[in-house]
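[Amino acid chain]
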Amino acid sequence: MTTSSTSHPTAHLRRAVDCVIIGGGPVGLLTAVLLGQAGLRVSVVERWPQRYPLPRACTIDHEALRILQAAGLMRDHADLFEPSQGERGGYEFRNGEGELLQAIDWNRPAESGWANTNGFYQPDLESALESLATATPGVTVHRGWTFLALAHEHGHEGVSVRVSRTEQPGEVELLRARWLIGADGANSAVRSQLGIEVEDSGFQADWLVVDYRPKVEESWSAFVTQYCDPAQPATAVNSGPGRRRFEFMRRADMTVDALDRADTAWRLMEPWGVTPETAQLERHAVYTFRGRWARTWRSRNVFLAGDAAHLMPPFLGQGLCAGLRDARALSWRLAMTHQGLATPSVLDTYGPERSGHVREIIDAAVAAGRVICELDPIKAAARDAEMRRRFRDPLADTRQPPHPRLGEPSLTMARTGSEGRLAPQGRVRSGGREGLFDDVVGQGWQLISRAANPAECLGGTDMTWFRQIGGVVADLSMRGSVEDLDGVYARWFDEHACDALLARPDFYVFAAGEHGEIPAFVSHLRRTLQPAVGRPHRRRSPAT
């Protein structure tokens, strides 16, 4: 089994690894990078010999950029992302006459140290991720190989995987690993083979997606505009530096084939002045927008991630963001289990946490879709009147995107109500360095206090153990060694009426409370990760 030209060539198949990932898109590649950086041997199996050269996802949020920061990608590739800078809040609903009906605050200050919403060009992101993956020790990307079947190994924790060369199906190879991750998209072969059922929101609509490059400067009032026009629902969105996207819903009097034509795309964009003279058409394709999710995300040592686990309409720009959250949530659990720092039971909460979180976003995206996709003029007029009334209400706040907490059961300590929600990242100064907290102080388990040094609360044994699991501590008090440059942490602590927090490697709050409760935070974390007495036994990966 050989790799593509973009990967390190191997003379033969790496037949025994710690983890096999089926799917070499952004979710699979990011998961491979994070696992490789933690010391695991990883094989990524991707059926297509070359990366897909055209745009697909085009919106990414602050949390996803923090995840990419954790993988080391943002050091050299922050310029791939263009922040939202719309005048009214970044996301608008307008009716067929162009009247503003509602605004969502996509330009608000975000928790994660990056712009709340950003446009990007997916081929560039995938190229950067694959370069990072192939440069990561222990990671190999095998392009041009198709997943065939999996089997759970008897007698030990492991999975065997059969793959064949995509262009030569008769050439079959066998891989063995402790874990398998199915990140192979909405039509996941891994999910199908496991017999995992998919639940459906009941929402379904065909939309034409058109990507173009403006030849002239364009002026838009928002990063995303939803045109809720019953005559022709449409979306206009910034899709990354130098690029724009339109989306148009298919009406009943239009066939899919007729919709998926270049002349149709030009005709539909013409009212906005987008013509062959003012723009270069990059691609057009018809997609069916749906809201779906897998009933379970795990079968023994096989896990689902990304579109294999969930699918949502793109109206909130959260599809890829959710997949990158999956990558981070699963990778730190697998890494700690592999390193003997946690028992395998920590893997039990991956699916419930992520499923509960993403379901809330799916529901919000479907609700937005039902507003946008209304074709009945009478119902649309009533919708406009209600949205207009709410928008003009001086007591009504501008809506914000959904901020879900983790689903239950979750790997958190219930104390103040902030557990299971996203922890902040701000700019700090420490040791003569300035920058984002994760870069200056460190990522992993983060124990932060604004009252005093958290280490002084802990006994030597607990502090040593916390360091062993990759924990970092930060004293943000007046006498502390870390300065909160923009007041991000002070505002967070004020908002949540606490002085200390313990954040997980995926940036969600494990515990928060008073400074004196820090020993209880760490003690509870230790019992959660290592419930058995003594250090958990580290299982070996299948032998070569």
